[in-house]
Amino acid sequence: MAGRGTVKAHGGFNANNDAEVLFKAMKGLGTDEDAILQLLIARSNAQRQEIKAAFKTLHGNDLVDNLKSELGGKFESLIVALMTPPIMYDVTCLRDAIKGAGTDEKGLIEILASRLPNEHNDDLEKDVTGDTGGNFSRMLVVLLQASRQQGIQEDLIQSDAQALLAAGEQKYGTDEGQFITILGNRSNAHLRRVFEEYRKLSGYEIEESIQRETSGTLQEVLLAVVKCARSVPGYFAESLYNAMKGAGTDDQKLIRIMVSRSEVDMMDIRAEFRKRFATSLHKTIQGDTSGDYRKALLLLCGGDDNDLIRVSNKHILAFIFHEMCSRFREKKYFSRSYKNMKNREQHNNHSLLDLISYRKNKVL
Q1: How far apart are CA 79 and CA 85, in angstroms?
Q2: Beta strands of the chain (E only): which ranges?
Q3: Residues 12-67: pLDDT tens digits?
Q4: In sequence order, which residues have a C-beta less than 8 Å from that of residue 229 and are 6 or more positions away?
Q5: What is the CA radius of gyration of the chain?
């Protein structure tokens, strides 16, 4: 997915200069929120960490603490997320999903099904198992351990498909353990091949069988893994749409996805969003958010695909118009030439052949 993000490392980067710009944006009465968001979103996460270190050296304060004291609400949450290293951000989101009363199962599923945190405190697994239960907890632990095999194992494709079929459609009851083992440990590329083989063997898509054979949060996490195996950008496009559709907005999810995918595959997510929902991600964000929060999200989005399509369509229409005019002119020439021949009674075989040859070469 290299190069498919909307946020890139800034050329001519100078951490000290950027630290000074941010210091001035927060100095005195009032805060220049626009200067803050414009600078931070134009830097990669690695560069933001350098700015943070430079700010500490130059001013003796923690940049994130200063930002928190100057900003507020959803905009503050987004900026703090941008300032957090990716792995630490995933771990923070996981902890937020399980802390306090109740558990954000959907948040746990999204993070663990779509990416594999390969660094975390040993207590995180205990926290997850302590806050969830049953087969759902088992699946989360498998995903949290990040032990997916690499590549495609040709010798296991058919046996994996047969094992899934035997564990569900062909069994009285369901062997959830087989679904957890195979879906939790195989690579996305391998799983796509298994799904093809499964369809040939059973006549069903794997999603249909999961919906029939499982329920609740286990079903949700298994389906999320399948969606990610088929298309990670497609999974996030759907998640973003669900975060903004209807009344209200799931801002936590919106921030989490926009920040975590901005340097990874946001361009692909935008393309999937447009393809699936017949509108652009940019336009949807614009209609669902406001203020500096909206500005920051739109910069992370990186562009409006509706505008690109309008420009493309304009060029296509111009080309069609040019071709139609050209063909119309040729048609007029053909008709006029034939009429002249008829008037002069010169329509012998040779002149007709010449005219037809001209028409074929120029128009057809």
Answers
A1: 12
A2: none
A3: 999 999 999 999 999 988 999 999 999 999 999 999 999 999 999 999 999 999 99
A4: 183, 188, 191, 192, 195
A5: 29
- The domain that holds 290 is classified in CATH as 1.10.220.10
Amino acid letter at 250? Answer: D
User: Do the domain assignments include residue 214?
Assistant: yes
H helices, E strands: number in the chain? 21, 0
The model's pTM = 0.82
CB 182 within 8 A of CB 194: yes
Judge whether 144 and 108 are in contact, CB under 8 Å. no
Q: Mapping DSSP to helix (H, G, I), strand (E, B) and coil, where does residue 204 land?
A: coil
Residue 346: count of CB within 10 angstroms of its CB: 11
Query: Rounded to the nearest 10 degrees, what angle do helices 134-144 and 105-114 cross at?
Result: 40
Ramachandran bin of 278, using left for φ above 0, alpha for ψ from -120 to 50, beta for the remaining angles = left
Domain ranges, residue 346: 307-362
Token pair 């498998």 in the structure block, residue:
142
Residue 354 structure tokens: 């010449």
Would you say how long the chain is, in residues? Answer: 364
Residue 68 lies in a domain: yes
